[in-house]
């Protein structure tokens, strides 16, 4: 009887650990999307609304240099899509922030496979980048506000 109680107790201790691994990506890679507000400090607030077909992250008003980010498991068939709508003063822009498993977006110019897509919002437009081996962001201007 004592052995049975010990086994039950050990099972209860181990079970939550096992269930927590269910949130990991087993069959597909894990991707991260980062949107960093790099607008001038004296500018109007930035508003962001990002979503996919399954997830709506709601509206965010990130402060200067704040990193709004999320992660997800890639689709088995490579069809993951996330897009964002950005508002800043009288300007607004909507575009895909992830639709390609190798370059973040199909027309992206990231030189090599990256699972961390970094979007930098600046007054002259939107920059797409990735973290390099030194932990810095290599980026280029992807599009402007118009």
TrEMBL record:
A Gene Ontology biological process term: rejection of self pollen
Name the record gives this protein: S-protein homolog
Domain of life: Eukaryota
PANTHER family linked to this entry: PTHR31232, S-PROTEIN HOMOLOG
Signal peptide segment: 1-22
Entry keywords, A to Z: Secreted, Self-incompatibility, Signal
Family: Belongs to the plant self-incompatibility (S1) protein family.
Annotated compartments: Secreted
GO CC, alphabetical: extracellular region
């Amino acid at each position: 009887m004592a052995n049975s109680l010990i086994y039950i107790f050990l099972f209860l201790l181990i079970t939550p650990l096992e269930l927590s691994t269910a949130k990991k990506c087993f069959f597909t890679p894990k991707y991260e999307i980062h949107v960093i507000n790099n607008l001038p400090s004296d500018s109007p607030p930035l508003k962001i609304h990002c979503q996919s077909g399954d997830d709506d992250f709601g509206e965010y008003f990130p402060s200067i240099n704040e990193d709004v980010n999320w992660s997800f498991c890639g689709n088995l068939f490579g069809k993951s899509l996330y897009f964002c709508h950005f508002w800043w003063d009288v300007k607004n822009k909507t575009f895909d922030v992830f639709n390609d498993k190798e370059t973040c977006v199909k027309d992206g110019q990231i030189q090599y496979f990256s699972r961390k897509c970094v979007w930098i919002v600046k007054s002259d437009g939107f920059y797409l980048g990735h973290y390099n081996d030194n932990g810095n962001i290599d980026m280029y201007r992807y599009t402007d506000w118009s």
